[in-house]
Specification:
6-stranded mixed sheet, 11 helices, Glutaredoxin, single chain, alpha+beta, 3 domains, 5-stranded antiparallel sheet, 446 residues, Alpha-Beta Plaits
Length: 446
Amino acid sequence: MLLAAELSQHDIAVLLVETRTDVDDRPRAGTVHARSLSHLARRGYVPSVPPAQIPDAAGSAHRTPFQFAGVAGLTISAPAVEPAPIAGIGQAALEAAFEQRAREQGADIRRGNTALSVTPSDDGTMVEVHASDGTTEYTVNARYCVGADGPRSLVAASGHFPSVETPATMNAISGLAHAGIDGPPPGWNSTSDGWTMHNPNPIGQGRVIGMDFRGPAPDRTTPTQAEYLTMMTQILGKNPDLTAISHLTRFSDYGRYRSQMRDGRLLVIGDAAHVHYPLGGQGLNTGMQDAFTLGWRLAEVLAGTAGQACLNNWSRRRVATAAVVVGNTVLQSRMMNPAMTDVRDAVQAMLTVPAIHDGFSDMISGQFQSGFVTDLAITDQTTHETTSLARLLRSGRTVELRTDDDAPRLNENDSNRISVTGQISPAPPWRAALIAPDGYLRDSRA
């Protein structure tokens, strides 16, 4: 849905085939991290810092405590000119917001439709997608096909997308339930046989997860209520006191990332490109960042203003990011294994070293990805109006900023870019810069 919104903002004809008829309301990630919040602010999905506050906020940071491998001790920070280090936004709410914008911009979103086959043309110029609306089958010819279609991606299976895998070592079941007085305690809770995680809901079902480290599940079937209760009993060592159980899903610490995310006219993002142990919402955040960084590049390629190398470069950068995310989740799983307390103790000791702690913090929050331009206040020398970089980027267009009339002009042939000359605060290390629609620096001159 996010990629459909990004592409349709550039007047790209988009068809989205989605099997689900409604927003997916199963318990999913609800933690949005700093880098994703910055992206969301640059499209107006969440508020950005008011321009007048940016000069005073520059150079300072906001901080909030977070967990690593279920244990407190990590602090996530973000520049004070950005929205926040962390925000609680449910995946379903994000999906609904992205869908609404995509539809408003003219994207053709076909819920209740299922892709049956994806076939690149022999000459490599088109992709044939065969789909069904449940009654009638139809065929669509597209210039590109992007698979945001989950771990068992049809798009990935239709092309060459080699992968790097880490086998599962544990089994987990997540669900919604009412917890009684003797139920799992709130938050993260370790036992001799595993972990529970309980997000209480005072007015309804809360999210309750059981994590069993005795070994992986023998299959990937949908868990039953009996299996869920048996697992929770094993982990807690007592009756779990859970009722009104629903929305059961299974996961593990299996990790995989595609070593390329583009094969000709086929591309993969989100879970189709990388899957891992779901800790801290990193899958949700990495998937959104895939879409934010791909959308404008694919739009430029389709418009003929960028070449295929643009997509290859995107693939390399996103693969490197996915490898880091999968790697840190594998580490967290090992730390949570009751049989590997030595790993947990060693990493927790390392996190007391400030530089290591800050590196882990940036890794979890997505801020380890270099080149992002934090928000700036810009006072136009002609209109004398003050705005911010985040607000300029809401249109999804590249922004050229110049500190004075003598500063170099960058990419003057791009008539679609937004160009502003004036006072910039905080003062940047360049006199002219091109900032891509996703907020990353494209070019700069002193």
